[in-house]
Amino acid sequence: MKIIVTRAGFLTSVQDLGRAGYRQFGVSLGGALDAFALRVANLLVGNNESAAGLEITFGGLQLRFADERVVAWCGGEFDVRSGSAPLPAGHAARLQAGKELRFGRPQSGCRSWLAISGGIDVPIVLGSRSTDLRASYGGVEGRVLRDGDILLLGARPGSSTLATTGIGLWTGPHDWVSPAKRDPMLRFVRGADWARFNASTLQRFTSESFAVSPDSDRMGVRLDGPELQRENNVDLISEAVAPGTIQVPPSGQPILLLGDCQTIGGYPKIAHVITVDLGIAAQLRAGDVVRFSEISLAEAHRLLLQRERELERFRIGLSLHDS
User: Fold this and answer.
1) Which residue ranges of the chain lie beneath pLDDT 70?
2) Which of 77, 122, 155, 210 is the most buried (most CB within 10 A)?
3) How many C-beta neighbours within 10 Å does residue 319 have?
4) Topology of 185-302 in CATH?
5) Cut 0.90: pTM above it
């Protein structure tokens, strides 16, 4: 009931759906930067949606399985193989004891999420198994995985989408299992400080493109592009921020916050990327070009509720497939 990390890759960590309910204490949500992708992968292998899996950044991961397990992954355009056989995104595969699973470097996007039947069994800290790399707790000793690490697994669930050895045909929609896009457009709703920016600045924000800076991480994506200057430089009181918030520091170069972001911030909040598009934002890497498009709050709610209804139908389909 374990896997051996024969090669840890560039940056691989244990993540689940994060530490909800602790933001008032200054604890970041954390968890998988694309929580929806991890939920889908977990459903494909028969896990609870909140089971801990692995977040793989820029590939290079190689695992060896000590016992038979079902695996599935979602994310960027990675070359993933079991032996010589490719394993496409969003498909479950049953791996025999002794088998190895390898993640190559991505052609597009930068992250993927691997679910393993039974889930990764590491200690729960503040209600989550996720690794908080900045605070150094959770996951495996609060750090990224290293070559030679051994990860314990939970008991295998009683069902999955795969009854025999091989790769299953059942999968989810392409945007769920492979959300990375070339030259993506991120939809947003107006932030609390939208009115602090003049009309020409707002026009640049919605009509021009921004390049992803190399100085980006799980906390946020720094963007280089047209300078976004507010009308005055009055100091602001720090207020709550969340994954998806776009802040504008004095440099005028926006920062799109991701899952490991702080809980409060004092920079003006020009916009918030909608929840449905956070999976696309999680795939941004240095040099990518991104644009922004405004939608209404009502439309953002509609898109989120629609996706949840579709996920419920997906759950039902999986249960019928397993019966």
Assistant:
1) 158-165, 322-323
2) 210
3) 11
4) Cyclophilin (2.40.100)
5) yes
